[in-house]
Design brief:
16 helices, single chain, mainly alpha, two-stranded antiparallel sheet
């Protein structure tokens, strides 16, 4: 018995060592072909966004190829319409911001002078030509300047690389997403067929849970970001904040990253209000962003993201930090959905293999499904008779999947 225990322990150790080595090799290969990951990530996002529309077109008896192309056309039309609405204002505010930069610099210097006088510091002497020349002639400062210049050169290289990656994303991601949408059902069938027969039903169930949770997160986060951007823009417009649309768009875009949108938007609004010389405007901006954040957390997100994975704020913050350190902006964007997928897979294996729970019990313990308000539920239950005939009794009646400890018969 002791030898059997030692063999099992050695086996587990070698499995862990092999997993670490395989993970390291995967990271090296992923870094070597890092330019392809951003288009793949954006293509996956497009697939999650457009798949419900393609399914709806299929229910309308439109072929999947035509439905995929039509979904892309509708999305493109919506983006063009949105850009047509906001571009003139964004352009005018961008020009106004560029023209206001010298005045903002003058106001900043005046604020520094006033603050220095309060603490007995002569800012004019610190900013005089003689003081600047003495600072530049200091050998230690010259070394610092060289480091800054080298860092600026590296930053310029990163900007050029980022522009190239953006061009690749714009051109490649929609093409990848279109092909995936067209062949998605075939991909699913082939993936299930590659698994051992006794695990096919379980793999189909778990992959459906993961895909549903990730799709709900991506679509919900995008819609919540649009709502937060609109609410922030309207709020800043109501208090007559300069560059209100730019602040709102930035807050909405950064809301794609949890906890970041309203915080950065509020800080930027406060800075603009203070530079505008209106402290009360800064107070109102903070109050508006706090209200938007609370409504987002307690009303908008629970209603839109009806399928959510239980992730604590600490886990989300750690995932964002690790994702950003490993893959930069891409890592920050995909950190939460990847963590949610890992949480579902590992939790399913633990609960079914160790705790002996059924598949449904395992998914209910990890995935939270928020019921819609009763009024919306009554509206959604009013299905026309001709549409109701499209659903079979099996599709309308949920069936609890079999327990994992029940041996599945091998197909003959």
């Amino acid at each position: 018995m002791a030898s059997e225990g030692l063999k099992k322990a050695a086996l587990y150790i070698w499995i862990a060592v092999g997993a670490v080595a395989l993970g390291y090799v995967a990271l090296v290969v992923a870094e070597a072909v890092r330019v392809i990951w951003l288009p793949i990530a954006f293509a996956a996002g497009l697939v999650f966004i457009l798949e419900p529309a393609v399914k709806a077109f299929e229910r309308m008896r439109i072929h999947r190829v035509a439905g995929s192309i039509l979904a892309f056309i509708v999305l493109t039309a919506l983006i063009i319409a949105a850009l047509g609405l906001v571009f003139p204002t964004v352009q005018s505010q961008g020009v106004e911001l560029a023209e206001s930069l010298p005045m903002l610099f003058t106001d900043l210097v005046a604020w520094l002078r006033e603050t220095g006088e309060r603490f007995g510091v002569n800012v004019d002497e610190l900013l005089s030509q003689q003081a600047i020349e003495e600072w530049l002639n200091d050998p230690a400062n010259q070394e610092t300047i060289q480091q800054l210049l080298s860092g600026f050169g590296a930053g310029a290289g990163q900007v050029i690389r980022g522009v190239a990656e953006a061009v690749i994303i714009i051109g490649l991601a929609p093409v990848l997403a279109l092909y995936v949408l067209i062949d998605l059902d075939r991909f699913k069938r082939q993936s299930i067929e590659l698994t051992p027969p006794r695990y096919q039903e379980e793999v189909a169930y778990v992959s459906g849970e993961v895909g549903g949770a990730l799709g709900s997160f991506v679509r919900g986060q995008l819609l919540v970001s649009v709502i937060v951007g609109i609410a922030s823009s309207v709020g800043m417009w109501l208090i007559d904040l300069p560059f209100w649309l730019l602040v709102g768009i930035l807050a909405g875009f950064l809301n794609l990253i949890p906890f970041l949108g309203p915080v950065v938007g509020g800080a930027l609004a406060v800075l603009v209000a203070l530079l505008n010389g209106d402290p009360w405007q800064a107070v109102w901006a903070v109050a508006i962003f706090v209200v938007i954040q609370q409504i987002d957390n307690h009303v908008i997100t629970p209603m839109i993201q009806r399928t959510r994975v239980h992730l604590s704020p600490l886990v989300i913050v750690l995932a964002l930090v690790i994702g950003g350190s490993v893959a930069g902006l891409l890592g920050v964007l995909i950190a939460v959905p990847v963590t949610a997928a890992i949480r579902i897979l590992v939790g399913h294996l633990w609960r079914t293999r160790v705790l002996g729970q059924s598949w449904r019990e395992a998914s209910e313990a990890m995935i939270e499904v928020t019921e819609p308000p009763e009024r919306l539920a009554r509206i959604s239950r009013k299905i026309p008779d001709d549409q109701a005939r499209l659903f079979t009794t099996q599709e309308m009646t949920p069936v609890d999947p079999p327990s994992p400890d029940v041996e599945q018969e091998e197909p003959t």
